[in-house]
Amino acid sequence: MFKKVILAEDFQGENHGIAETLHEKLAIEELQNELYCDKVFTRLKVALKNNAPFELLVTDLFFEEDHIDRKITSGRELIKAARALQPNLKIIVHSMENNPLQINTLFKEHKINGYVCKGRNGMIELVNAINEVFHNRTYVSPQVNLTAANNTIELDDFDRSILKELANGLTKKEVSDKFKRENKTPNSESTIDKRISKLYDEYETKNTTSLLFKLAKEGKI
Amino acid sequence: MFKKVILAEDFQGENHGIAETLHEKLAIEELQNELYCDKVFTRLKVALKNNAPFELLVTDLFFEEDHIDRKITSGRELIKAARALQPNLKIIVHSMENNPLQINTLFKEHKINGYVCKGRNGMIELVNAINEVFHNRTYVSPQVNLTAANNTIELDDFDRSILKELANGLTKKEVSDKFKRENKTPNSESTIDKRISKLYDEYETKNTTSLLFKLAKEGKI
DNA sequence: GAATCCCTTACAGATATCTGTAAGGGATTT
DNA sequence: AAATCCCTTACAGATATCTGTAAGGGATTC
Lengths: 221, 221
Description:
Chain A has 2 domains: 4-149, Response regulator (Rossmann fold); 153-217, Arc Repressor Mutant, subunit A, CATH 1.10.10.
């Protein structure tokens, strides 16, 4: 089993719960747990310098802001920095995020080794994930459907620029006029109509209101 | 100190962490922890029936959906049901929610006794909250500014029911028809128009699309 | 009981949205 | 070069949205 593990989790309750569970279920010799990304990164650096590097990082993605100044403000940034520092470090993400797209990019761009959703089985899955990753396999929570990520519709820049103006209360005619003024192209009201109608189909919505609402709720704009 | 406490928290890690902390820091004789609201409510009922009621409920607000059928799907519903069942029960909410408006309505409508934000000090605050509530005082996490809640505009049930249907893609005429079918009142298209127009003013938006977008972004619906 | 206020409702006119048809242009294929 | 595909654009007709006016009813005030 891993000898030296570090945990980044800003919720005190969750942090405590994970630490307890890992002590109970796994024979990890040294487990350090931190509430701030910056502290985790410092520990990784120091450990590496002392020729006693950590073998596994377990980290959340979202870290709440508070009165303390931070350089690294998210799990994603921590992962990137940790990968650059220590390419052979194993990384498991433990987060509420369940958007396959987001999770997919973590595997692709940052070569994480496991992904566990917070939830009713979070601790059971985390223990499994650590075991799998220890044996050089990857682990993904079963409720995450990574193949779905490939089927999702991407919004391109033109879509986004239209949606932004509509969200702001402009009519399609006004959006068209604005684009013409700014020499953006395409810019006809008709083309804007067509683009938006296409999005109705893709997102299974009926009108501008329900489309913008759905996209806002899903955090896509 | 409280002799009999029940905990409702669906994240296994957080649940474990809270339970551990309370065991360590407080002399609670009996602490039951559950991952589902329905189970909590059943336990409350049984305990009351056996003349050994719980004294304190600590609950989250959001409970993730899974494959299991649920009657009570949110902390808010659980609180309402628990209050109706056992008016003298002390209730502390422990959640990520930090919107003063939402928190205020919990104190006003459901007479909760304490509110603790999940976060880096979550466990320290929770222990404090339990001590305060035990001495018949209320506790609110210091980072929550409840006075700010009084300046914001409230959405009432009628507003919400209209907005929900519009978000779903119905036209105002369809919303009016639906309300008539359901014997909801008021229900005329004209009144619905008026309500929504009022919200345009209050939220400084220009049309249905921008209104729904803004409310979705701010998490108000 | 009259006056007032507020909410509900009806209606109407100006705009905006949504959908379909059709034409033209650039890029790619055959 | 012709055929094809895809994107842009124009236009038009049916609906929907937004705003204003006005009438009626219930509750409260005077």
